[in-house]
Amino acid sequence: MNCLTRENMARLVATHLPGNAFVNLGIGAPTLIADYLPEESGVILHSENGILNLGPKPAPGEEDYDLINAGKSPVTIKTGGAFFDSSMAFAMMRGGHIDVAVLGAFEVSASGDLANWNTGKSDGAPPAIGGAIDLAVGAKQIWVMMDHVTKDNAPRLVAQCTLPLTAVGVVKRVFTNYGILSVTPEGLAVEAMVKGLTRDALQGMTGAALRFPRELGVIHSDGAVHWAGG
Amino acid sequence: MVDDAGSAISGLQDGHTVMVGGFGGAGLPRRLIEAVLAAGVRDLTVISNNAGSSGVDLSAWFEAKIVRKIVCSYPRGATTFADQYRAGTVELELVPQGTLVERIRAGGAGLGGFLSPVGVGTQFESGKQKIEVGGITYLLEVPLKADFALLRGRAADTMGNVVYNKTARNHQAVMATAADTVVVEVGEIVAAGSLDPEAIITPCIFVDRVFMAERT
User: What is the fold of B5-212?
Assistant: First the structure.
């Protein structure tokens, strides 16, 4: 059983985004998803520093430091894109105009609580929240892309978050390096898991009870999903 | 129109509250930041998205120890600020990015605040009044205003209408509404009438001084 690389996690999320959706990709690993969005998906990317229809990173030497994404890396704008101020950018989020926000996380609880901001408690650094908290409250759907466990093999999917929360009960779907899970009123349900992984093994890496449907998707190492009977 | 950065910030005093435009390096009014250093003012309260990183940005103000408090959303990558934060010599008010800009908007629009769902159930609700409207719990967020706003525009016309450059607009168009004295450093000054009235982002009513810096 092989867990997914970060790139194949990004591919997995990219293939699940609804066509023509307005999507915000959080700083960090979710930014990689942009590289795997097929042109025909029609997905329009939003960046909270004031861009709609964000394009890929520019060619070397073509960087414009007045054209950056929320992670402050140089990007491009696609045909039909728009610039706007931060107030409008956050109105797009808080007002429910963004279809999906894909965020990184430290922990997600079985009821969809999200902990993904750096409080600085561990290293004495200043706390930093940025715009993730606004996205977590405002987007129509919050998806999380994160490793299933910490470096020390502690579960990140838990019954109750132990870290300070970013938002309460907001996460709808979680994409990890071992599977796709959804947050339901009955707790965490597994939609698909990587090929060769057993249900017991996935449960063993998870800090909350999992429910498994009859038809479980199988995720191949390249991030493609095959559905049993499909 | 003022001829030098020093005149552009005249009247800025010790203890003032200063909004500084920019998100990362995009939209930083670098010449005005330098001018504040040269003016020798101190004990400033700064309202800005970030707390500097390196080079000519807010980190120079922290190095010179002229900031008493910063209101910002993402003070990461800011080494000098971080050292002073750890030492307890600078105060931080951490505000979610969308709440930060909306508090500035409220300040500039004459509102007494606004109700936001952001932060409910987290440590960001502490000390804030909770108000329920239509069955949803909101936090009362209060306005932010400043004595000075220091901004960077792509161009201004001779009336003082301003346009920005791409993502350098960020918080700046809103900050322009919320300070007693609004100073805009620009890369170009053009004749009134040469900016499309439909495309002006900050109308001249908000702008007190325009300072011509180099193009970026």
Answer: Glutaconate Coenzyme A-transferase (3.40.1080)
Q: Is the pLDDT of residue A61 over 70?
A: yes
Above 70 in pLDDT, residue B206? yes
Count up the domains in chain A and report the number. 1
Residue ranges per structural domain of chain B: 5-212
Mean pLDDT of A52-70: 94
- CB of A123 within 8 Å of a chain B CB? The answer is no
Are A225 and A216 in contact by the 8 Å Cβ rule? The answer is no
Name the helix (H) or strand (E) containing A184.
strand A179-184
> Which value does ipTM take for this structure?
0.95
Structure tokens at B12: 């800025």
Chains A, B: CB contacts within 8 A come to: 137
Domain range for A137 is 6-177
The secondary structure element, H or E, covering residue B29 is: none
Q: Please report the residues numbered 123 through 182 in chain B whose beta carbons come closer than 8 angstroms to any beta carbon of chain A.
A: 123-124, 165-174
Over residues B151-169, mean pLDDT: 97
Among B130, B104, B168, B47, CA closest to A65: B168
Q: Which of A65, A67, A164 sits opposite B123 (nearest CB)?
A: A164
pLDDT over 70, % of chain B: 98
Question: A83–B78: do the CB atoms touch at under 8 Å?
Answer: no
Chain A residues lying within 8 Å of B172, measured CB to CB: 85
> B216 to chain A: which residues are within 8 Å by CB?
65-66
Query: Is the CB of B122 less than 8 angstroms away from the CB of A164?
Result: yes
From the DSSP assignment, how many helices (H) and strands (E) are in chain A?
Answer: 4, 15
